[in-house]
Specification:
The structure is a single chain. By secondary structure, the protein is α+β, with helices and mostly antiparallel strands. The chain contains 22 helices and 19 strands. The protein has a six-stranded mixed beta sheet, with helices on both faces. Strand 5 and strand 6 form a beta hairpin. The two termini are 44 Å apart. Residues 501-734 form the ABC transporter domain.
């Protein structure tokens, strides 16, 4: 029997995969596999795990040896992570049989592998040869599917043209203007049909009698020509009015759509933005709404006009000659079939174009704000290459779509030309047979010219309609997304907040990772709490939960006894002051940045906050003082200056809860002293939760909370924890030894050949 494994030969990139295949027994198949990227010494290396029904096989990248464990009851595979390193343990009872480590880049694949290990005894399964596997995570694919639901972060469903009907919610405020525009369109369309109707009497009553020897009646000619002129002028006036009105309405609909999309975007939680790229979101709100505006003001208007025109022309042609009208309509089924066929291809094509264009704008959004880093590391060519690859991908997608579209348009034109020839031939036959006059044929040919012209126009609208549908889908993808931090239906009003926090047995997961587990903490009003622990211990996550950037998955967080989920996000956050490790300043003046949380603040209040933040002196040294412009993200100011402005911003709103997230870790010692003075003013009388890189800066905290792997391991004042000689003492001593070593030893460059990840 042939061996089966979760990837084919082309996608099996691990060098030991062939060796694994040769080690399998006759009837043994691989159910799941995992490529681990660290060895036992935490050096980068390619290890391999493979699971079958009979055993677990492992290739160690360090020893270059294979190991195997027969599967039996009581065998467990445990998954955990710490400090950016994941861990898989094979245990039996209290005995560890094996241990594998990996970076969290493959944590998702590791979870899928563990799930496959746990399901190995779950009754009958499909035969291995009938099961497909994802080439990325090696997980079994759903039946009759080529896409892995785990790896596919966003399901790109083709846009439906019906999504354009959802724009009605934005058009509803402009119903009156739209109705007026429709009536004007109806009048303009009717006026354009007067001309061909007058061609018949001009031919039958003026030109043909003149050829037969009769005199031309000037008044009759003037009458008909006047009718043609009047119809043209009326059509022009009505067309101008309806185009102007509908253009105004479409611009307002697009503006309302941009505003609604941006407002909804601001209401979404941080988790949504963690999975999106800035350039893609900018493209959706900018270019997609512009595309919809153009569609509404021009192409949708043309489409409705075409439908009205075709309907009216059909009525006129049938009234003139039913047989000629029937000949005219012969190409219609073929054109309709082609439109349907091409529309299905365009639907997926334009949505894909939007996605690849989002990749192009994302490269720009990444590179331009980070231009200082790009130049510092001389990576201009790399970024140019990245942009060229994204741009070339965009070009390829457009070329494939244009290949289809370029064939469609000439084919429609060919069919209409054939239809026109059929009408000419049949019309000549009817004239020769005496069934119709030359005037009737002339009038009919004028109508059919417009009829086929409108058909050609409608076929071209298929393209822009699908573009607009793709854009509308990407807009509504944002509008349909619900925030993971919702406001309650019946919110409780927060009045007179004292700042007490009760954290009760909370848990939280980042996707597949459990970051906080069973954590409880009671913080008294006005108390200063210092959060300490290794990187990845959950300190910043706890702060994010307290700020309600995310909601806990278990337990509850209460402020003054009220669950945070019972109050509105805005009502709660107006009591919070936040000072981040990397302060963000907006493009604008110093005063505007300080007053960001309180836009109506007076200049006296702004100056008072700046004085308390020890920022007043350096602000006055700027060319225009408080009215000096700061560049994008505060470029032009030092890190310490930006930090003191952010402290002044927090002081101005006078919060009851203060969050300090590594507020002094990115500055030098002298600047830290200035910032610390500002922080001393900031924390007075407020409940403060501080994360600090330097443990010595937290000595003034009432209590220190030591965290490890998402749990609290120690709580107490600095001196008390030092006497215990527990987790905090070890952290403090390790940091003190590191500082002494840095002061005693000269700086050495790292070995470029050593690739080690420290847990």
């Amino acid at each position: 029997m042939q061996h089966h494994h979760p990837v084919d030969d082309a996608s099996a990139k691990h060098p030991e995969w062939a060796t694994l295949t040769s080690r399998l027994l006759k009837d043994e198949n691989v159910l799941a596999s995992l490529e681990v990227d660290l060895d036992g010494q935490l050096h980068f290396g390619q290890g391999l795990l493979a699971l079958t029904r009979q055993r677990l096989l492992a290739f160690d990248a360090g020893t270059r040896q294979w190991s195997e464990w027969p599967l039996r009851p009581g065998l467990e595979l445990r998954l955990s992570d710490h400090a950016g390193v994941g861990c898989l343990e094979l245990v039996e009872g209290s005995t560890r049989l094996a241990l594998w480590r990996f970076t969290l880049a493959i944590n998702l694949q590791a979870q899928r592998f563990q799930e496959a290990f746990e399901r190995r005894d779950d009754g009958p399964r499909a035969e291995a040869e009938d099961v497909g596997f994802c080439p990325s995570c090696k997980a079994p694919l759903p039946p009759e599917s080529e896409e892995c639901p785990t790896c596919e972060r966003e399901l790109h469903t083709p846009p439906s043209t019906w999504v354009l009907l959802r724009l009605a919610r934005f058009a509803r405020p402009y119903q009156g203007q739209l109705l007026l525009g429709f009536l004007l369109m109806l009048g303009a369309t009717a006026a354009t049909l007067v001309g061909p109707y007058l061609y018949r009497p001009l031919m039958d009553e003026v030109l043909i009698p003149f050829q037969q020897g009769q005199k031309i009646d000037p008044w009759l000619v003037a009458y008909y020509l006047g009718g043609l002129l009047g119809a043209g002028v009326v059509s022009w006036l009505l067309g101008w009015a309806k185009t102007y009105i509908l253009a105004l309405v479409s611009e307002r609909i697009a503006a309302d759509m941009r505003t609604a999309t941006f407002e909804h975007l601001l209401s979404l939680s941080l988790e949504y933005f963690g999975n999106k790229r800035t350039g893609d979101l900018m493209s959706r709100i900018g270019s997609e709404t512009d595309r919809i505006s153009v569609f509404l003001s021009l192409h949708a208007l043309d489409f409705i006009t075409d439908v009205l025109m075709l309907t009216m022309i059909t009525v006129m042609m049938v009234s003139i000659s039913p047989w000629l009208a029937l000949a005219t309509l012969l190409p219609l089924p073929f054109i309709a079939w082609m439109i349907h066929l091409v529309r299905d291809r365009l639907r997926t094509g334009f949505e894909k174009i939007d996605r690849v264009w989002g990749e192009v704008t994302s490269v720009l959004a990444d590179t331009i704000p980070g231009i200082r880093v790009v130049k510092a590391f001389a990576q201009e060519r790399r970024e140019a290459r990245r942009f060229k690859e994204a741009n070339d991908n965009n070009l390829k997608v457009n070329d494939r779509l244009n290949k289809t579209w370029s064939l469609f348009t000439p084919t429609v034109s060919l069919l209409t030309e054939i239809g026109l020839l059929v009408v000419w031939a049949f019309g000549i036959y009817l004239v020769s047979d005496g069934d119709i006059t030359v005037g009737v044929l002339t009038s009919f040919l004028a109508y059919i010219g417009r009829f086929y012209g409108r058909m050609d126009s409608m076929s071209r609208i298929v393209s822009v309609t699908q573009k607009a549908a793709a854009g509308a889908k990407r807009i509504f993808d944002i509008l349909d997304h619900q925030s993971n931090v919702p406001d309650p239906a019946n919110p409780v009003k927060l009045d007179g907040v004292t700042g007490g926090l009760q954290i009760q047995d909370i848990g939280f997961r980042y996707g597949n990772r459990a970051v906080i587990r069973g954590l409880s903490l009671d913080i008294q009003p006005g108390e200063m709490i210092g959060l300490v622990g290794h990187s990845g211990s959950g300190k910043s996550t706890l702060v994010n939960l307290i700020c309600r950037f995310y909601d806990v998955t278990e337990g509850s967080i209460r402020v003054d006894g009220t669950d945070l989920r019972r109050v509105t996000v805005a009502d709660y956050r107006r009591h919070i002051g936040l000072v981040l490790q990397e302060p963000f300043l907006f493009f604008g003046t110093i005063a505007e940045n300080i007053a960001y949380g309180k836009p109506d603040a007076t200049r006296e209040e702004i100056v008072a906050a700046a004085r308390a933040a020890h920022a007043h002196e350096f602000i006055l040294r700027l060319p225009h003082g408080y009215d000096s412009l700061v560049g994008e993200r505060g470029q032009g100011l030092s890190g310490g200056e930006r930090q003191r402005i952010s402290i002044a911003r927090a002081l101005l709103i006078n919060p009851r809860l203060l969050i300090l997230d590594e507020a002094t870790s990115a500055v030098d010692t002298e600047t830290e002293k200035e910032i610390q003075k500002a922080l001393d003013n900031l924390v007075k009388g407020r409940t403060t939760i501080a994360i600090a890189h330097r443990l010595s800066t937290l000595r003034k905290a009432d209590r220190l909370v030591v965290m490890d792997r998402g749990q609290i391991v120690e709580v107490g004042p600095h001196d008390e924890l030092m006497e215990k000689k527990g987790a905090y003492w070890r952290l403090y001593e390790a940091q003190a030894r590191r500082v002494d070593a840095e002061e005693a030893e000269p700086m050495t460059l790292p070995n470029p050949n050593a690739h080690t990840v420290n847990a």
